[in-house]
Amino acid sequence: MTGRLLTFPLILVLAALAALAMLLPAGVALAREDHSVARAFGYSAVLGLALIFVVGIALSNRPRRDNSDMENLLSLFLAYSVLPLFLALPFYEGLETTSFLNAYFEMVSSLTTTGATLFDAQRLTDSLHLWRGLVGWLGGLLIWISASAVLAPLYLGGFEVTASAEPGQGGTELDRFERADSAKRLRQITRQLAPIYAGLTGALWLFLVIAGEQPLVAAVHAMSTLATSGISPVGRLENAGAGWAGEAVIFLFLFFALSRLTFSSDTLTSARPGLHNDPEFRLGLLMVVGVPLILFSRHWMGAIDVDEVENLTMAADALWGGMFTVLSFLATCGFESASWEAARDWSGLGTPGLILLGLSLVGGGVATTAGGVKLLRVYALYLNGQREMERLVHPSSVGRASAGGRRLRRQGAFIAWIFFMLFAMSLALITVVMAALGQGFEEAIVLAISALSTTGPLTVTAVETPIDLLAMSPAAKLVICGAMVLGRLETLAIIALFNPALWRD
């Protein structure tokens, strides 16, 4: 049965899953006697399933064949750009006081795990908050599965750094012969990763409830943490009821965004197995410890001027706030610790948002829900730079590394540099376009980085005055929507869609 369903276009299967997901907020709204919202989600689910069923019947008589990798990539692009039109329908009908463009922006932001929002938390009902969190959670699951089932066979999404084939071209003909068909890969990877994803979310939800959080708020925070979407029904973590214990639990689960090896073994980047040998995890851990210590020392010097050096409690709060916030923005989640403000109060110094922008640009691990440039690409560039400095001292020296390490240091660094340049060009283009549409230079930079790195909370935490996304022009909102899709799929995947092999049929 599952194999037969996966012979249909992937975008059709995803639309059916989205329609079924609408029944959950419909049930919550009905239980809370919010009948208008319940009708909006219930009717959208029924009508959506009916339309998908009719389209499925129309396609069932076609010759049965497997979807190619490039067709699945196109479906993935449509899922992030066109599917939010369907997801926005119940949100628009349930809220009743906004435009459809705003609802579409909200769903693109949620599905791409960006988490930028146009609305205050008080304006949305619990069912609408749940829908935002659920869409973000499904978007995280989609990128978890598609990373191995769609992007990896095409050597995209970070896999191109360690692969020998060209990005978007796949392997040799022999590789194609030995590789399982796309439907079988999707089925196997979904069965492997979906229970892990759901189990981790359920465990985090349980821990947050035990810590004193309300069940619905705990559910949205748990889904947002695993998906690194940063969506919160209470605005900020300091408004949640779990307190320090909730932050500590979320901190531990954010490590799943630093390396794929924390939950899967399909992206081995080292000849030696084990998480402690994974360069992504070690580099991420170094940043999580090193950046807060630098900030802490800076705050300590500031505290000398205000005679607060001996206040150890405030010093501990400042250190914890730095570690949590650094990991959160490195994972492109964007949750801000309640102790982040304590660091400023302790030292009397403000923390510049430029650090948070830089962490978000670096991003998390390859094939995780995190966005950004990715730690593996940064590591490949580091290896290449280290080797070039060695050659400056000893021009005839031979690098000490295995064949895989040499490949990562040479060809991997080369393709990582190409991606970095494409990322920088995309950032410059979106910044210029946003400035032309009326945004200030600082706001345009923050908006471009938050969209391309899928870290929506940057629009609030990285600037002194939060950016009013709702007041932007319709053209600016559409540009940000396109930037969020570009940041989620990455530039190389978008370029791969122009491969002639996709259009020959």
List keywords for this structure.
mainly alpha, single chain, 505 residues, 65% helix, 22 helices
Describe the structure.
With 505 residues, the chain is mainly α. It has a domain at 2-188. The protein is globular. Helix content is 65%, strand content 0%. The protein has helices at 2-5, 10-21, 23-31, 35-59, 69-81, 83-95, 100-111, 126-151, 173-178, 182-210, 215-227, 243-253, 279-305, 312-330, 340-347, 353-362, 375-393, 403-436, 441-452, 458-461, 474-489, 491-496. The two termini are 26 Å apart. The longest helix is centred in the C-terminal third of the chain and has 34 residues, at 403-436. Helix 7 runs parallel beside helix 21 and helix 8 packs parallel to helix 11 (215-227).
Q: State the major sheet.
A: none
Proportion of β residues?
Answer: under 5%
What distance lies between the first and last C-alpha atoms, to the nearest angstrom?
26 Å
Succession of helices and strands: HHHHHHHHHHHHHHHHHHHHHH
Low-confidence stretches: 172-178
Mean pLDDT: 85
Q: Count up the helices.
A: 22
Shape: globular
**Radius of gyration, Cα only, in angstroms?**
23 Å
Q: Specify the structural class.
A: mainly alpha
Number of E-type strands: 0
Instruction: State the helicity in percent bands.
Output: 55-70%
